[in-house]
Recover the amino acids of this structure.
């Protein structure tokens, strides 16, 4: 009758069987060893020791390889934070379809139950397609309704086309680069019907007056895998403005992302606008928003609350007039879907 012995390696039991010959082999993480009862146990000890050394070496190599492919934690998961751009770009060859909605005031004189807390009113909406030319460079094109007819809005525009180019300069990487940085430049064009009132901004004496531009340097850093911050110095230029306004505006944006679970994150975003003391003295506010981000397979879904009515840097930076303390903030959402051909 054959004697049966059991030896344990790191993970799995190994069976040692008695037979008339002696040999050994290692197959993956299994050791098969047969020996005669009269065999010198020093040989057994030698071969088992050799096996353990070989297995440990293989195990260490696997751990090292896994560590090498470990991905850097997410700084911001979407190309937008709430209203403005984030440091993220779309990967090479990937398309992203984005649909954004802003409803009416939740409270205040234009909100409340009669307007279903803003759901009866649509402040602005945008649909856009973005594409990653490379892992560093992306472009995007969109069309938005414009916030001209929204209650309390001071935006003079509707029927807006927009486009932008975004390039990733630096990407944060442990032990190599302490932060991420991108630069964004974009433009909007309104094809709305011109006003016949020469005193209005949307009178548009020239076609060039329908254009507005922005450029932004976006700097972000994540601290571990849960918390990220960003600074977004932004310059907006509009070719045609009201007499009490100024063409060029500088704004400094700040944002954070706090990961709550694997699928949810809390977002915050604020843009402070700097202007000449002789202009923009009445009726202008800074954009402030908070959001809950829900990341699913292929989708990025954001539920947000903000006092801005318009979408896009040339709209929410110069034309935010609503006050949070007066209930003039609104519910909005954004759905982003990535795909490729």
């Amino acid at each position: 009758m054959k004697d049966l012995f059991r030896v344990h390696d790191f993970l799995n039991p190994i069976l040692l069987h008695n037979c008339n010959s002696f040999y050994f082999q290692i197959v993956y993480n299994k050791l098969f060893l047969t020996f005669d009862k009269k065999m010198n146990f020093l040989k057994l000890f030698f071969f088992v020791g050799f096996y353990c050394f070989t297995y440990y070496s293989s195990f260490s190599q696997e751990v090292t390889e896994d560590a090498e492919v470990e991905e850097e934690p997410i700084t911001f998961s979407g190309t937008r934070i709430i209203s403005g751009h984030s440091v993220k770009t779309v990967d090479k060859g990937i398309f992203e379809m984005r649909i954004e909605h802003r409803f009416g005031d939740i409270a205040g004189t234009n909100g409340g139950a009669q307007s279903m807390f803003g759901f009866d009113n649509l402040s602005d909406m945008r649909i856009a397609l973005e594409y990653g030319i490379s892992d560093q460079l992306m472009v995007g094109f969109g069309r938005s309704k414009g916030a001209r007819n929204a209650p309390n809005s001071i935006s003079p525009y509707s029927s807006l086309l927009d486009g932008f180019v975004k390039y990733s300069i630096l990407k944060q990487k442990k032990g190599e680069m302490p932060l991420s940085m991108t630069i964004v430049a974009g433009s909007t064009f309104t094809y709305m019907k011109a006003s016949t009132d020469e005193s209005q901004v949307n009178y548009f004496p020239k076609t060039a007056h329908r254009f507005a531009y922005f450029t932004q340097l976006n700097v972000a850093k994540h601290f571990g895998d849960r918390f990220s911050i960003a600074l977004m110095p932004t310059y907006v230029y509009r070719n045609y403005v009201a007499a009490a306004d100024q063409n060029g505006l500088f704004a400094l944006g700040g944002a954070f992302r706090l990961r709550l679970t694997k699928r949810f994150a809390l977002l915050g975003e604020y843009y402070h606008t700097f202007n000449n003391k002789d202009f923009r003295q009445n009726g202008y506010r800074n954009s402030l928003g908070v959001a809950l981000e829900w990341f699913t397979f292929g989708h990025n879904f954001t539920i947000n609350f903000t006092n801005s009515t318009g979408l896009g840097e040339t709209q929410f930076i110069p034309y935010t007039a609503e006050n949070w303390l007066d209930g003039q903030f609104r519910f909005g959402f954004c759905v982003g879907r990535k795909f490729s051909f």
Observations:
- The CA atoms of residues 108 and 217 lie 35 Å apart.
- The chain is about 10% helix and 45% strand.
